[in-house]
Amino acid sequence: MFFSSFLSPSPFTSLLILILCIAGVDFVYTTPAKIGQGYKLISIDKSPDGGLIGHLRVKEKNNIYGPDIPNLQLYVKHETEGRLRIHITDAEQQRWEIPYKLLQRNTPPSLKQNVGRSRKNLFSVAESEYSGSELIFNYKNDPFNFFVTRKSNGQTLFNSTSDDSDPYSNLVFKDQYLEISTKLPKDASLYGLGENTQPHGIKIYPNDPYTLYTNDVSALNLNVDLYGSHPMYMDLRNVNGEANAHAVLLLNSNGMDVFYRGDSLTYKVIGGVLDFYFFSGPTPLAVVDQYTSFIGRPAPMPYWSFGFHQCRWGYHNLSVIEDVVENYNKAQIPLDVIWNDDDHMDGKKDFTLNPVNYPRPELIAFLEKIHARGMKYIVIVDPGIGVNNTYGVYQRGIANDVFIKYEGKPYLAQVWPGAVNFPDFLNPNTVEWWGDEIRRFHELVPVDGLWIDMNEVSNFCSGLCTIPEGRICPNGTGPGWICCLDCKNITSTRWDDPPYKINASGIQAPVGYKTIATSAVHYNGAREYDAHSIYGFSQSIATHKALQGLEGKRPFILSRSTFVGSGHYAAHWTGDNKATWDDLRYSISTMLNFGLFGVPMVGSDICGFYPAPTEELCNRWIEVGAFYPFSRDHANYYSPRQELYQWASVAESARNALGMRYKLLPYFYTLNYEAHTIGAPIARPLFFCFPNLQELYDVSTQFLVGSSVMVSPVLEQGKKEVKALFPPGTWYNLFDMTKAIVTKGLKYFTLDAPINVVNVHVYQNAIIPMQHGGMISKEARMTPFTIVVTFPSGMNVVEAKGNLFLDDDELPEMKLGNGYSTYIDFHATTSNGTVKLWSEVQEGKFALDKGWFIEKVIVLGTNDTDGAFEINVDGQPIEDISKVQFSTSEIKFIDSLEDEGDKRKSMMIDIHGLELPLGKNFVMSWKI
């Protein structure tokens, strides 16, 4: 929930600008083009760990944004074959860095005091290099600049040089202002730098503002810093038709502006250190693999979390929730998880139950009923703990000294319960206390996951506040997001009023506006100024630890605020969006960005959070949202009801789109395993699988699920067809596999798309595991399997591949070797007039114990069968195949091959009546 979500962007922005003007804040701030002369490298040597350690001295001091830090330490290390680190910090004093225990990484060499050491260690050449397997670090001494180049093709990936004609400085390093830039080729395609809503699509757009500082600003606001901070970008370059991708991460939690001009990129950061990591790729998938290997692999998600979720802020009592579940069942729309926003709470206080609207005995009975069916229940938790001496959670928090402090006292803020204190998740005591409170609540209500919201952290007030005397706050009569505490602005410290103003909220709002005062203090003296953007990240870690410790089960956590590494612990939804066609379109770009950030379990509020969606919009949104990795309908308190059964047409679209999703659950879950093991996004831009096709680099209206399933939705009002771009090859319609598109080159096709239809195609050379589907994932999971094999049309010698991962999804770890998992590689070939399909099973016992079997194989794109059908299971031929039946259908091509002479008859072969156990190797072959 967002305290001002119900205001349109323009009034909110205008009001805030007016407030700032009255306060005398000048938000039209001109940054000096050049600041100083940079630094000089005065010595450099090999570090004990095989890297480089150097010392820099400022060339010419100035006081723009404060005094320069005179001496810096440079540390450079090739940490892996594909990862290079460049770390620059104060050579004499420790500076704030993201705690190494929070985001685990190698510690640089300790600071050296002998900055004026002899020049004898200086490399004798004015320009030198330090080479790794694929990346090379080059540097110049005076002024100090560095270059990162790719060994295989000589491309310069990062170049910090500032020439006289450049609008940016050489390296600037002050206590509260750091600046560094890189030159870029004009044809580079950049992605990332979130979280924000990018109206132009997935590519970073020149001259748009990119500010990274976690804020409770709703996602309907464009080009502003939203809930997460991810200071990484991927750079995709295409030279003569060959693509190479790399990524750059600036690991820094302080607020920053990033200026992308098309041919350069400049960081302006208000604290911390410069800690760069370069990931060599060279493919987009390799980049994300290397990136998540460093920041933490995405968390394994339970199987049920890939089902459909229903939520609403405003389910006033338990009977409403019961009706929602029943109505989904009556409408025959799949539903796995029912959610509560704060409606279940007593006075909006965490870890409580409203005794009137959600009495515990009735709630427990309801949960026993839905749990027996396999459904799950998740509730919201906000970080603000109500200040109330009769509230046990608060009492225990005070006793354990868990709250963020201001001048020695818990910092006072206001969120939904009224006056609150915020837990300090950097404090080990807080982590233990938080875990104990979750344990206590789980004993009260056996929830199946937690939704952590408002954790940017959001505060309805600003500054230093006290609880008013003589009046009730809040009084319950007005909007809950209006500040009712007695507050005064804090501008007397350099933390609350830093010399450089980042473009917070798009209007250079004060860094403490509607959040914790940035001069407040965390554990071990850390300032909120430095730690602000990792608040949600630290809460995710503490919540993950708590949930995993409850029953040893795999946790499910949904977090609004995220940082580098959050995907290792939590899923994400994209926050408070608007029920507009534009927001439907933006949801695709945002989802694809979070795949880059290592948070693959992501989705947007289906049908929009507010206001009321139209029936047509909700139809089209569920057709997209059914293929989000995280698929949830969510609406706000003041909107009319928008559950998918509210309109007959939307219910039909939901049955259609979610029906396909539930058939594809084994495919989604296998992608979950891939994400957890190699970081691969579940939802991917088209260029991930076709990186050499430059025309795909800014396609933001279609997306891939995995490498083989492409979704081409309708995103415009009134449209009954969609213009979709198809990469070369054969694409089969997943809803009607007798229809296909074949193209030799990249080509647009106009596809029919009536109101209840979404176009989903599967690419050639794939093997997709599917099941029957069902109303709930628990039931769908136990149905027989269908294996779909897609060959390119008209080819004589081809192959296809696919895989399937199955496990006990309650286990905290997702891996092979524990006795509760099975992994299968599928292969298929056509050669010499024979089709051959086989499996290679690892650890088949789990699948055998579950009784899973293949009942059908569908092969697309071959000639008609000519008999000689054989099956071997574990090397033994199956003699009796009398139950096995064949049926064939001719595949119809839409706007087919450009060269009609290349058209060949292609068939769909349906082999059914099989009873092949998934846990055993099989080989199947027949003549064509």
From TrEMBL:
Lineage top rank: taxon: Eukaryota
CDD domains: GH31_MGAM_SI_GAA, GH31_N
Domain Glycoside hydrolase family 31 N-terminal span(s) in chain numbering: 82-254
Stretches of the chain forming a coiled coil according to its record: none
Gene Ontology MF term list: carbohydrate binding; hydrolase activity, hydrolyzing O-glycosyl compounds
Cited Gene3D superfamilies: Glycosidases, glycosyl hydrolase (family 31), Golgi alpha-mannosidase II
The Glycoside hydrolase family 31 TIM barrel domain, residue ranges: 298-671
Protein family membership: Belongs to the glycosyl hydrolase 31 family.
Name this polypeptide is given: Alpha-glucosidase
Organism: Anisodus tanguticus
